[in-house]
Every structure is written in C-alpha cells, then in structure tokens.
Records
---
Amino acid sequence: MTATIRDLRPGHPGDAESVVRVRRAALPFLITTAARVAFEAASANPAGRRRLLIAENGDGLAIGTAEVGLAYESPTPGLAYVNAYVDPAHRGLGTGTALLRAAEEHLAAEGSAHAYAWVLDEPGHRAFAERHGYRPSRSAHFLRLDLTARPLPPYPAGLPAGVELRTASDFAADPRPLHAADAEATADEPGDVPAELDDYEDWLRTVWHDPSLDKDLTTVVLVDGAVAAFTAARTDGAGRYGSAMTGTLRAYRGRGLASLAKTDSLHRALAAGYTEAFTGNDAGNEPMLAINRRFGYEICATETRYTKNLESTSR
C-alpha cells in the first residue's frame, strides 16, 4: 500500500517524536531530539519555504520523513535541498518515492532549479537516487568516538600567552562575536551549496536558540580577548554528543586552536556523562579529518551528495 504523505503538525508532540524515531532508525549518527524537530518547524525562516513531510502507512504509523526547502542562505539562487529517510523495517514499499515526489513538486512550485540530497554511500541508496534522476557529487563522512574506550588526548601543559578558553554560555548577553565567527567558518567550509550567514536575527532564531545546542559544552577560544576558534556542541540528553561545527577564523589558523577547542569540549562532555561523540566531515576536508583521527574518531558511514536539475524534469 502506498504511504500517505502529509506535513508535520506544528505543536503536535507525537509528530515530532515520530520524526525522531524514523531518523534514528535510518541514520543513527545524527543528534536529533523531538524538541529540536519542533523547534526547527517553529523557527524556520519563511524565505526557506521549508516543509517537513511525514509518510504514514495504512495503520497511521510514521514510516518515513523528509525535510525539503530552499537554500535561502546561499548566494547562488535556485538551490534547494531534500533529505528523505525511510524506516529500514518499511523499505521497498514505495515510501521513498512518494516522499521524493511530494518534495520535488513543492520545490518545482517554488521555482527551484537544482535539488541536493544526501544519500548513504551504499548500493541500494545510490541506486534509488540514480533511478530518480540524481547524480553524485562530493562525499562526506560520519565519524564516531567512544568516549569511554580510551583516554582522550590531554590538555596542553599550559595555554599560549593571550589564549583563553570560554564557553558559549559566557556570550549569553551578546552572542554577536560567535555569529561573526560562525559566518566566517561556514563561508570557508567545503561543500556544494555555499552559505552566507549574514542575517544575525535569523542566526539567533535558528542557531543560537536551537534547544540541542549545548552552550555549556560549546568551547570558544579567545586570543587577546577576540574569538579565534570554536567548536559547537549538540547533545541529546541521553549520552550522545555531536560536533555541529568546528572552525578557526582565518587570521588564527595553523596554531592548533581548533584542536584545543575540541580537546576542551570533549573532556567536559565526558565529565558530564556523555559516552558517544559524533561528527561529520567533508571527504576533502583533510585538516579536520586529521584532527578527528588524533582524537580517536573512526568513520562509521559515508554519504554522497546527489543533485538533480529540476528544470529539465519539469518541462
């Protein structure tokens, strides 16, 4: 039986919990919570035309979900995204196709030219994407670290002159320096879809107030009082920690500050009771991959970014 596709119902806790259950089953390397799903729906920028779709079987059970919208932060017009997930126990029933069809119809109505989708680098997932007209681009890795398996790299014997460690919580009164740092690091991040975080109010609404952003475990490195590097942490409150972004501002690169930030954040995560750490890196981001290997992270899965020209298929 073909699944029924509908939108997430804002304020309906059962919907958010269903999305989390499907995402965790399909992609267990993501840090996701019902609070974050509800937050994303409530805080989405209207310019993104974001929709969160849910696929239900005949018994009303959510068996798939997809997030779809416009890449409004990109300076390149016409870019969009669609990321679909189907519960592995319910694959092969046409649910992914139904989700993708609904997502592409939405994007076509919004005038999107190109859709990007992350696809697990496994034969079945790749074949599905290619059957639907998507073509592979760059890849990225999920990495996992068992925080209890072996000791973390130690703190340096002493911080260099002028270097201080802070947390994001220390910037609660004025997070603008963190916005500026995030914007610069994001602009330099490898990827197919460039992003410009030039809207401070949007950043506050969608990033700073994200309930999964753990401000106490997010480490900020200051050099002579200025933000030089940071690692942003997301947690699920159930033992799982994720690096949302680690970056160093251009003027401070090559000094080991990103590694220092991660060292501090991971040590405090372990002390707070977290047992698993996850992160993701573009396959071509060798400097960050090297840092994570030194901490003991191991690749646990790979995704490939696929793209489809929606204009050619809508004619």
Note: Residues 95-109 form the longest helix (15 residues).
---
Amino acid sequence: MTALRKVVDALDALPTTAFLALDRGRVVLDHGATTVSSYLASARKSVLSVLYGPAVAAGTIRLDATLDELGIDDIGGLLPQERRATVRDLLTSSSGVYHPPATVAGPERDGPARGSQAPGALFHYNNWDFNALGTIYERCTGRSVFDALAEDLAAPLGFDDFDPGRQRLLGRADVSEHLAHHFFLSARDLGRIGAMMLQHGQWDGRQVVPESWVAESTSVQVDRGAGVQLDYGYLWWLPRLLGRGSFLAIGNFGQYLLCVPPGLVIVHQRSVPDDVVLARSQGAEPPAPVDTVSPQQFMKVALMVRAAL
C-alpha cells in the first residue's frame, strides 16, 4: 500500500467532503468533491486577511486607525474604551470589544465583560472583531468584500468554480450592525489562494497580494504562551508543530487550508447543508447534528501527506 493510499483510507474513515494536496502547484492528491463550492465558516477570516493586503499597502486602510476615527459603532453604542481599538487589534482578535456579535461562535458565550480589557491586552477569539473588519474594509475602500473577492482573487487566480451569487452576508442585524461575510468556495479554488500565498503573493507573474503583507499577516502577532499549539497572525493560525512559516485557516465542522513552505498546500472541506448554515447564523441549534473533523484529526492526515512527499 502506498503512503498516499493510506491517506485516502484515513480520509474515508472521516466525514470528509473534499481533500486536496498540492506540492509546488502540482496536485498530489485530489479526493472527494474538490470542484464543488461550499460554505466557509471561520476559514473565511483568513481569506478576508488576504483581501486586506492590497488596501493596507495602498494606505486605504491604516492598521493604527481606531474605531472612533473610522466611525465604527454598534447597537446600543460602543464604550469609550472600545472605541480606542485599532484595526490591528481587530486583526489579532485582541480588540477588547465584547459587544454581542451578529454571528456567535462558542467563545463569545463566556467572554469577558464589556470594558474589562483594554484594546490589545488580551487575545480572545471574537466574531465581533472579524465581522467589524468586513464593515471597515467596505467603508474604507468603497467596495464590497464580495466584489473584492471576485476582482482581487477569483479573477487573477483563475478560480474554476467561483459563483458571485453564492456569497452571503449572514447574522442577526437586530444584535449587531456588523454581519458576517461568508464565502462559498471549492477546495481547488481555496488551494489556489494557498499556493499564491506560499509564492509570496505572486501568481502567474503578477503580484496579487503584496509580499510584505503575506509575511506580516502570517508572522506571529500573538504569541499565545506555553501549552498551546497555535499562535496567531492577522486572521491566520500559526501551527507550532510545523515550524515558523506555516499558516492555517480553520473553520467549524472541519474546514482547513494549511500552507507549509516551500510549497505544500492542503485543503480539507466538510460541507454542511444550507439549513444548518442558516440556523447557526441566527444563533439557533442546527436542525440535525453534523459530524465534524477536528483539528487533531486533520493534522494527523496532513502529517501523513507531508511524510509521503
């Protein structure tokens, strides 16, 4: 049995929808529905980080701009301390803004009290930060996040399966003004984003994302201390196990985009039905449980792929 055959057997034991591995742009494993676009949960945040690169380089978005300067508020009003949070604080999930988000991930339910943490003082995974970054992008650039995805990534990278009409704003507008920009992408199109990032932002001779942003956004911005496996950049997780330079997007249910220098890209998708997506976006329990692939399960398979190459 070949090493990659063992990888396929491992995937068949999981609720995997699609799995794609690239080595320096060459497909080494294509398994499952890799051409079907599906909902990205929190993996969307790393894609948003990529979109930020050109706008930051152009000076359209300043990382040191505060929420107060940008006119960012929310239902019921932000606290004076919260208004001092910067774009950089949001990109590192360290804003100190604990206003309820329009879309809820587990950590917000037991989050710190409003006003208890100064901006930049505490890393706390918080969907308010990520959703507000979408609003900030649109106000500063005058473009929708979805238009930027289509024009700045899908077009230059030659996405094969991209459907502009499939992209969705989700969340409860009665809870927060800042809804979540959710992307629907295929494994092979996600793989192109990863390959471009590992090529220092270049694709087909074009600088799609500034090299400086690729380096900065995937470098340690938050060292999470002893006893954890993942540090944090700008909306990218940084796995210690694979060494500095590797970066990872993670989404609920089992969505992963792993990039390991010099050229290994691994995409794992676990698609979920639209009724589950809608229920989650409204803070309700999904109609039925969805089997997931944990980060530990994914990393075990990813290490098998790396060892096989």
Note: The radius of gyration is 19 Å.
---
Amino acid sequence: MKSLKRLQAELDIAFRDPRLLKQAFTHSSYVNEQRSADMQDNERLEFLGDAVLQLTVSDYLFRTYPERPEGELTKHRASIVCEPSLVQFAERLDFGSYVFLGKGEELTGGRTRPALLADVFESFVGALYLDQGLEAVKSFLAANMFPYLAKDALLQAGDFKTKLQEHTQQRGMGAVEYRIVEERGPAHDREFVSEVWIGAKLFGTGTGRSKKDAEQQAASQALAQLKA
C-alpha cells in the first residue's frame, strides 16, 4: 500500500486535516478488523462526494457547452458521474493502491474492485470539499477529470450499453442479453455481477453497486473484446 503523503505530493494537494484524507481511503472492512471507536470508514464521505461531483460536473458542462439543451447536459452528466466512468478516473490516479483494506477484502482483490474504486473517488472529493472547499474540488477536477472530458475521451464513458448495442446492430451479430448471475455482500454494501451475451456467446462480465452499473461494466468489457 502506498503512502498518503505520496498521493498528496503527486496531486500537489496538502490536506489541512490529514484525518479526512485517511478516512476517504478507509474501507469498512479495515474498520471492522481494527475495532477502533475513533476510526471511521469512507461511506459518509462517499455520500457527500457524490453530491459535490453532481454540482461541479453540472457547473462545468453548463459553462462549457452553452448551446446544448438541458436533456443532453443531463445525459452527459449521468455518463460522467457513474461508476464505470469514476472507476477510470480512480484507476488513472492509482487510488486503489492507497486504500486501507481488511485482510479478507485485500485477498479477494478489493483494490481493483470497480465499486470500491468509484466509492473512493467520491469519498476523496467529499474529503477535499470539507478540507478546502468547492474551489479546491474544482481545481482537482480541472486537472484530473475535465481535460479528458474536453477531448470527449470519457464524456460518454458510462454509456457502454448503447455503444455495444450500436456495434452489434451494425454488424448483425444478434441480440444482446444481460444476465445478473450473482448478488453478494451485505444489504448496505450490495454488489451485483452481470454477464452480457451476444447470441449464444458470453462476451463480458461486470460488477457494480447496482444492476445497471454491473451491466455497464459488462458492456465495457464486451466492447473491449470486440474491438481487440
């Protein structure tokens, strides 16, 4: 696991309250193992970060695309502030290497689990907002999210299902079917596993905190396989 001091140096962000930063990267499995009354996991920060992301991304899209109607802006925002998209940003920053995990979660590959990575990105945004305010969040996103959206590289990253449907229809590959094959974890931290089948062949598997996110991950994997 990498040091949070290293993360701050790489992001050029110095937290005034280091405890907030540590909380942002503390998974519930770690707290459960430590059994410390003073330790908090990142779930509350994740809740706050989601709202802050909705606001800052909305502001960015509103100002960047003055000619686009409300419906289109809403779709673009949804494609950015969704699990598959946030996972890509978290991976780009190597956030998984900084997470405090319980032993069981570590052994089962928690550092690369999409739902966990998306949650950590949101909780980091929430922690940064509490520590330094909205302008600091905007600066962070301007450096690590918005440039990629401006290039349209990730603007519609969350809409893999539509892209897969278009790809298969253009090539006459047959019907696309999504199957939820597994549900795991406690009720407050549910994770779904989805498969995507094209015709009679399995093309991708995905996981997510909702059935929709799991299907998007599966579609993303299927697209990668088809394009390869």
Note: The domain at 4-150 is CATH 1.10.1520.10 (Ribonuclease iii, N-terminal Endonuclease Domain; Chain A).
---
Amino acid sequence: MGGAGRGARIACESMTETSLTIRDFRPEDAEAVAAAHRAGREHLVMSAEVLRWLNARPGTDEHFRTFVAELDGRVVGGVRCGLVTGTTTAGVGYANGSVLPEFRRRGAGTALLAAAEQHLIALGVAELHSWLDEEPAALAFAAARGYEQGRAAHFSARDLTLPLPQAPERPAGVELRPATDWADDPRPLFLVDADAVRDEPGEVPMDALEYEDWLRSTWERPDLDRALTVVTVVDGEPAALSLAQTDGVDRYWSAFTACRRAFRGRGLTKLAKLESLRLAAEAGHRRAYTSNDTTNAPMLAINAWLGYERCAGERKGIKRLT
C-alpha cells in the first residue's frame, strides 16, 4: 500500500567500463523491466501490463517514476521510485529495482539508484526505503551504498494443484462474496483495507490512506482479479477481504488479506483467503505466493494452515538522504 514498494529488489554489482545509459521508462521497455524484476525470483508476480499501467497513470502526490538502464542499447534493469503516501509521516520515499543477473557488476544498479535518489531528494525526501533480497550479495551491495537493515519478511509459496484444507464451519450471518459485487461502489472494501492497514507491521505507519489514492493504486490495478478477491460479509457488512492479483496465466499473488478491527478473532480472514485460493485453483492457477512480515504471527499461522511454505526472504533497506 501507499507505494511502499512491495516486491522489487536491489541487485548486486560494481562499476566497470561499459556503455551505460539511464533514462526514463518507455512503454516498449515493459517486458525487459518485468523480466529483470522476476529474474531468479519465482515468487514475484509482476506483468509488463502492470508496469505500463503504473507509468501511464496521471500525476499524483506519489510522484511515481521509473528509470531504466541500457547497456550497449539493451534494457537490462529498472528502478521504480516515489513518495510513500497514505501516511502522516512526511519525507519518506521508496526506490525498488533490479538488474538481470547476467548484466550485474557493470554499474547499472548503482546508476539506477543514483537516479532514483536524485529524483527523491528533489521532492524533499529525507529517508529512503527499499526492499532487498535476503542474500549476502544484495545485502552487501546495499550496505556499501549507505543502507541500514530494517524489518524482515518471508515469501511463501503454495502449490494450488494440491488439496486445500477443509473450510471451517461458517458462523451464522456470514457470507463469502466476490469483490465484483462492489464494482459500482467499492468504498465498503476500502474501509476494510484502510482500517486493517493501520496495524500492518512496518517502519512507516499507514495511517492516512485516502479513498481516491486507494482507487488509483489498488482497485484500478489491471492485475487485480476482482472475481478471485473474496470479501467476508457479516450481517450485510464487509468485515474482511483477501485481495488477489494474477499474472494472467497461472500465477496468483495475495496482495493483502485484512480484517476490520471490530471483527477480529472470528476466523473471518481465514475464510476469505481459503475461498480465494479455492476459486484461484478452480480457475486454473497453479502457484500461489504471498509475503508477510516476520512479526505478523496471526497471518503467518493462517498461511501455514493453508499450506504455504517459505520460499525466500527479504530485508528492508533504509538510507538517510542529504
């Protein structure tokens, strides 16, 4: 949420002699930048279509921008950056990028980060956040460029061709409905998201999510599958939801599973996520992925019950800009 940059990573490399160009994103770069984002990271679900959409949106308070790196005329990586929105904390930005493995150690990652930092400094950013692959080379690369380690998170995967757990008994007055039922007015779903995200673990409190920003960043995403996004309704009121994004082929990403504070402790989140996975398997999706902060014990327990297994890790990198 709020442009905090879930999913992209910093690659590891050092400067060498090469023909390197850093420039703004063009629509024709999308396939190459998406390939760099996913390279070696089967748990990341990102399509070229989403990259084009992110860069075609009208200007917002996020000041979103994507830079790409060209080596000898070939696009080998990119970095997405902007202001963290949805929070009362000012002066925080994000920069998340990656380079194709075979083109690392040639200066592209360093140059991409420098371009992102210049963009963010001009916007008044004092603290820059980025997600890092939890492996020695990536962490060393970030440390050498002034990043300190912050929170840790786990990626988990689930084979959707294997049986899912049996659904718990549904309490009286509880329904499971697809998000398509709110196509004309999704504000009730926003209220679930905005209430729950206040308790999302993180360095920056997401305490000021606005409806219009939510529409632009979440509801209007081209990879949001509203038919697979399941809402738990209690006596007619949306209480919990499980947002589903897909790659349009066979991969499913759990973008956010949330429950309003007043409805917690009833198993409503578990019902929504299980039903979403069931529908995804029925639709032909074969692999499901999710990510959770290592301190988020309730959600980690639900994912373990659902059959997810840890497949990778990541660390928040934090840099103070001057």
Note: The first strand starts at residue 20 and ends at 24.
